[in-house]
Design goal:
single chain; mainly alpha; 2 domains; two-stranded parallel sheet; 10 helices; 51% helix; elongated; binds heme C
Length: 197
Amino acid sequence: MEVLLAILILAVLGALSLALARRSGISLAGNLGAIAMVVLCVLAVAGFLWLFYRTPGTDMGVAQPIPFSHRVHVNVKNIQCEYCHPYVGQSLEPGLPPVEKCLHCHKHIIARHPQILKEHQYYDTKTPTPWKKANHLPEHVVFNHQRHIRKEVACRECHGEVESMDRIRGKFFYMHFCIECHRAKQANIDCWLSCHN
Ligand code: HEC
Ligand code: HEC
Ligand code: HEC
Ligand code: HEC
């Protein structure tokens, strides 16, 4: 979104300056160099923005140290979100399940699966599974799950259909996303009191 917007703004600016140049009688041909420069700058900025914003958000989803699938666990095996993210309604952090919780089931289920053997290694060496973060919120934003879960805002309103994803797709949360829903639901939209510290 932001990238498209930036390109659009730059394109409009470029067109405007061209039009201005025409009106003041400067010939196009004489200014080809300048025009080329403008075009190059636009491309450079667009390219930079694209690289900057694209990185964690690739459509494939974030590759994890163990290819854990929400689709298999939630959709096929019917395990509730709260079983693995138990603090989502009680604290700032929903929590990711510790290895012990996986092994609770996987001691018995597909116990010899290579990925489950890998879980055992993490467990035996007391290494927390190095899950990669998929969701990103700027550091100056305080986000509180509890307030939202209590008001029955569904997980999918912010996270999409996690239950049908093998890999969670990376996502940046931008302010307009928060504000739009806060407006619609008449929640607090005071910047400093509520979201920024
Ligand atoms: C069997 C355990 C389990 C269940 C059930 C489960 N999750 Fe997860 N969840 C995980 C694990 C493990 C991760 C970290 C690995 C990953 O991102 O795939 C995770 C990651 C996530 C993340 C990404 C966190 C981040 O920013 O990196 C979200 C969002 C999420 N889960 C939402 C849900 C929702 C919504 C449900 C219910 C529809 C659910 N989970 C059910 C285990 C589970
Ligand atoms: C409540 C029980 C339960 C918990 C907790 C659980 N799983 Fe599973 N998991 C299952 C079941 C059932 C299957 C399907 C097994 C099969 O294919 O027969 C499965 C399948 C898998 C598979 C193989 C998937 C595939 O595509 O073949 C992996 C890998 C896996 N789980 C990893 C994990 C990890 C990592 C955790 C902890 C974050 C975890 N599981 C937590 C029940 C559980
Ligand atoms: C109002 C929007 C919203 C709702 C509703 C919501 N989440 Fe989140 N969730 C977020 C945001 C924003 C983050 C990123 C927080 C951060 O990076 O500090 C996040 C992060 C997470 C994480 C990753 C935490 C971590 O430690 O990396 C998990 C797991 C998660 N959510 C699970 C859930 C589950 C399960 C539900 C439903 C019961 C849910 N969320 C409902 C917005 C939401
Ligand atoms: C899908 C709807 C929705 C989205 C998206 C959403 N919120 Fe909310 N939010 C709510 C609702 C509804 C409440 C009211 C909860 C209450 O009254 O206790 C709320 C309350 C809050 C509060 C508590 C405000 C207070 O009164 O002190 C904070 C802080 C907050 N949200 C931050 C965020 C941030 C940050 C984001 C974006 C990452 C976000 N919200 C996205 C629906 C949403």
